[in-house]
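dude i think i finally got it to work??
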Amino acid sequence: MSRTYRCTWCGSALTLGSDLVVLLASHGGSSMLMGFSTEPGNYELYLPPDVTIDPGTVTDFNCPVCRASLTNAQHDKLAELALDEAGQRKRLLFSRVAGEHATYVITESEQATSHGEHKETYDDTVRIKLGKS
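look at this
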């Protein structure tokens, strides 16, 4: 399935090919480009050589084009991207905490699907924000 991830601020495409999303990441005073799978729920991470991120580290993500912060306004431990998938515009929220696997795909009609072994961590927050119980 074709997925194009975009910056929520400038709308720039952040997807390379069909398999990789590239974001500007920073933590502990260093910045780098970081890659992620385009498949929600696939937590394979692409880091520069010799870079490791300790579990529990909170990473700041920015658009590599406009440099805007991608931190979600309602929950500071989640980042947000726009997602064009199968002709529909969606939102993708994902944990900024290293090693925490929690991802949410939200449709225009405010239906959310969650992925990852830690999805319950933010499930209530996302559902309350959407007005779901």
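Residues 3-129 form one domain.
im so relieved honestly
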